[in-house]
Design brief:
mainly alpha, three-stranded antiparallel beta sheet, 4 helices, 5 strands, about 10% strand
């Protein structure tokens, strides 16, 4: 029970910290100002030291020439080269992912080619059987065995020929 009391006391002590000032800027006279509200629009962006979360868009703000020069310098600093180690790691990961993707595609293409070759072999064997002229029987829906007539035999030969033409290239 003593632990629970300490926990409650700690929470009560930390509660005021959440209400502390979240904005910090330097005013016109050069003093630091702490507030829970955004600074007035006449405070330049360079004088804002700390913000609360994402700042709302400031309406009516026109940058001074010195602010514009700083803003123009910012993209140049951002375009500076990054540490080589980070880029190398990223490039290696990207290359590895691309190599894995290519290997996966190659394996799938090989699998498809093998399936087509198997289908081709089966179709050729079936066609050879039908071309030989021997009697061929099939099982109907009732489970009875029936001999194929000439029209069913011709239809099956035509189907097997189309499989051969599509898979045996």
């Amino acid at each position: 029970m003593k632990f629970a009391h300490w926990l409650v006391l700690g929470c009560v002590c930390l509660l005021p910290l959440s209400a502390s000032a979240q904005w910090q800027w330097i005013d016109k006279s050069g003093k630091k100002v702490f507030s829970d509200q955004a600074p007035p629009p006449d405070v330049p962006e360079k004088n804002i030291l700390r913000r609360a979360g994402s700042p709302p868009p400031r309406s009516g703000f026109t940058p001074t020439p010195s602010d514009a020069a700083e803003d123009a310098a910012a993209p140049k600093a951002a375009a500076a080269p990054k540490p080589a180690g980070v880029d190398k790691d990223l490039e290696e990961k990207t290359k590895k992912a691309q190599a894995e993707e290519k290997a996966k595609q190659a394996a799938e293409a090989e699998k498809n080619a093998k399936a087509k070759a198997d289908n081709c072999d089966r179709a050729r064997q079936g066609k050879a059987t039908f071309d030989s002229g021997i009697r061929v029987a099939k099982v109907n829906a009732k489970g009875e065995r029936e001999i194929m007539d000439d029209s069913a035999r011709a239809a099956e030969q035509k189907r097997l020929q189309s499989i051969i033409e599509s898979d045996c290239k």
